[in-house]
Amino acid sequence: GESVGLHLPTLSVQEGDNSIINCAYSNSASDYFIWYKQESGKGPQFIIDIRSNMDKRQGQRVTVLLNKTVKHLSLQIAATQPGDSAVYFCAETHGNTPLVFGKGTRLSVIA
Amino acid sequence: SQTIHQWPATLVQPVGSPLSLECTVEGTSNPNLYWYRQAAGRGLQLLFYSVGIGQISSEVPQNLSASRPQDRQFILSSKKLLLSDSGFYLCAWATGQGHEKLFFGSGTQLSVL
């Protein structure tokens, strides 16, 4: 997993544009990856997940891309809306170990 | 459908006082249960998880303890709170088949003063 920083990275996007949130992981044995959205004062909500036998998975307005070669995961949000403003976390696991969360990225949508 | 209940939503406690946060899950059997803590502006730190009644795994040494007295009940406790125990506490559950898709409760904001 990633170390936790003092300040969350922030991504600002214009409403209607596409957003890309990135996540790097360090454990090459990780075989399951997941993205969560957390709004202020609330618990994280599941967005989308992907297993290591896949490179891409699509949901409603969201796509997760997995590049195992460089240990990189991304979340793409199409036509970003104000309601997408939140902190986004990636998490990983392998075998029988609990999820390890990244430090999060704050997405701000400019209307 | 499955639901997770976590309470209270907000708690202000003096240093040295005890703590008990409760989490219950409905609509599923033998879930894996988790307690995470989130400091302001930071990621989620796993504190404890449980794969069955009475089975507790601790991830970090700390002033806290966890118990699972019933299949769908998970309790986070402390005998004497420290200032550093302040934070946003999240309970979560997953199906008993692994530690993959977690479903989180609404969280408890704990302020130790």
Can you offer a commentary on this structure?
The complex is a heterodimer of chains A (111) and B (113). By secondary structure, chain A is mainly beta. Chain A has strands at 10-14, 19-24, 32-38, 45-51, 56-58, 62-67, 72-77, 86-93, 100-101, 105-110. In chain A, the strands form two sheets. In chain A, strands 1, 3, 4, 8, 9 and 10 form a six-stranded mixed sheet that branches. By secondary structure, chain B is mainly β. Chain B has a single domain (3-112), classed as Immunoglobulins (Immunoglobulin-like, Sandwich). Chain B has strands spanning 3-7, 10-13, 19-26, 32-38, 44-52, 55-58, 65-70, 73-78, 87-94, 103-104, 108-112. In chain B, strands 2, 4, 5, 6, 9, 10 and 11 form a seven-stranded mixed sheet that branches. Classes of the chains: A mainly beta (111), B mainly beta (113). At the A-B interface, strand 3, strand 4 and strand 9 of A face strand 5 and strand 10 of B.
Oligomer state equals heterodimer
User: How many separate domains of chain A?
Assistant: 1
- Strands of chain A, count: 10
Fraction in helix of chain A: under 10%
Q: What is the 3D form of chain B? A: globular
What would a concise description of this structure say?
The complex is a heterodimer of chains A (111) and B (113). Chain A is mainly beta.
